[in-house]
Amino acid sequence: METTETFRGLKSLSSGRVHATTDPADLPDDAGPVEPTYEYDAVDPDRLLDARATPAGDPSAGDGGRSVGTGAAQGHWRYDALLPFPASAAISASEGTTPLVPTDRLADELAVESVYVKDEGRNPTGTVLDRGFSVALTAVAGIAADRDVEPLACASPGNAGQSMAAYAGRADLRSYAFVPSRCAFSNKAMTNVHGGEMRVVGGRFPDAAAAVGEQLETEYTDLDEFATPYRHAGIKTLAFELVADLGDAPDVVVVPTGTGEVIAGIHKGFTELLRVGAIDDVPRLVAAQASGCAPIAAAIERGLDEPEPWSTPDTICGELEIPDPTGGTAAVEAIRESDGTAVAVDDDDILESAVAVAQNEVVEMGTTGGAAPAGAWALAEEGFFDGDETVVLVGSDAGLKTPDVLRSHLMGQGM
């Protein structure tokens, strides 16, 4: 399939060997985890961050009919100099280029220079994960020209299943999302609306994850986080957008963290910008988790390199209830390498923070995104900030993902 000029292949994280392929099925058995790598010296940082979207309807876009009502360089695909595939080949619905909203009241309350909310709820299916599935489905669609890839499958608390269904539908590929019974109704409904097939599994997320291999009686393409090397490779564009919008890297980025995929992807983006000379320092990354399921925060507190599974997960924030995160080690590495930290916050604080941002700053956050301001407030109370920082809170999904949970929180307060 067509790749960008800078793409070198899939690099083994254990051996450092670069495999000249886009298809994980072509890798040797001992390759281990891989990720896309590039000819970084060939990337002009000014041109990368100065990229402009091609006007919608531009006949020169050459998008092959794949992008949805946009030019080929719309959204985060304008950064294809550091993506595996060119914008002209993208399976895309203009994900990315989400608003970076200044929040002066939050800056005052946290006693820092400035605070912004990166509103990822504006993505096509209302989640930051759309960035990753756009890149992952572009890869799978290309591979499908050479071999059978169907069905596609992933286990998900909800958002990933919905996003996979949407992009798989765009690529005309069959998908199965395995979700726990606690999955939000909005996710279940929209997974089907997008044309995806869904299996609801009794219990929690680990039960849904176990059911994929048990219930699919055929070969399938695994699109779980880190099973494909392309999901976090798409999420990294969030870091590119922050630097493009702010003119430099922020000082601190607070990331709601479940599987570890999002914080690992954002860290990858900043380290690549550092490597090409676009920034001088990587921001301090903060993983914000629910105290009822905080294996990554516990690993940071205890000095562990790899999180231990959380024995009794219990949080109303389903996207954060990941007791044994696949990307846990990658998240710990991202936090440590950026001189960051992790924080665990109670469900009530997460819900109250999401409501407070909506009531005071207009921006709607789902229960997942509420972990970011809740985590920032907790850090401020601990004296984490010096006072001169630019802080970004990642609003990782839309408020309409979980409006019933947010309203129930208000009703519990007598409102």
Query: How many runs of DSSP E, i.e. beta strands?
Result: 13
The quaternary structure here is single chain
Please bin the fraction of helical residues. Answer: 25-40%
CATH second-level architecture of the largest domain: 3-Layer(aba) Sandwich
Specify Rg, calculated over alpha carbons.
Answer: 20 Å
| Content of β-strand | 5-15%
Outline, from the CA principal axes?
Answer: globular
Number of structural domains: 2
Tell me the distance between the termini. 55 Å
The CATH topology name of the largest domain reads: Rossmann fold
Sheet having the most strands: 6 strands, mixed
Q: What is the helix/strand order?
A: EEEHEHEHEHEHEHEHHEHEHHEHHEH
CATH class of the largest domain: Alpha Beta
Biggest sheet: strands side by side, in what order? 4-5-13-10-11-12
By secondary-structure content and strand pairing, the structural class works out as: alpha/beta
What does the model show?
This protein is of the alpha/beta class. The chain folds into 2 domains: 100-126 and 230-412, Rossmann fold (3-Layer(aba) Sandwich), CATH 3.40.50; 129-222, Rossmann fold. It is built from 14 helices and 13 strands. A 6-stranded mixed sheet has the order 4-5-13-10-11-12, with helices on both faces. A 4-stranded parallel sheet has the order 8-7-6-9, with helices on both faces. It has a 3-stranded antiparallel sheet with strand order 2-1-3, with no helix packed on it. Strand 6, helix 4 (159-170) and strand 7 (175-180) form a beta-alpha-beta unit. Helix 12 packs across helix 13 and helix 12 (347-361) packs across helix 14 (403-412). It is globular, with a radius of gyration of 20 Å. The model is unreliable at 52-72 (pLDDT under 50).
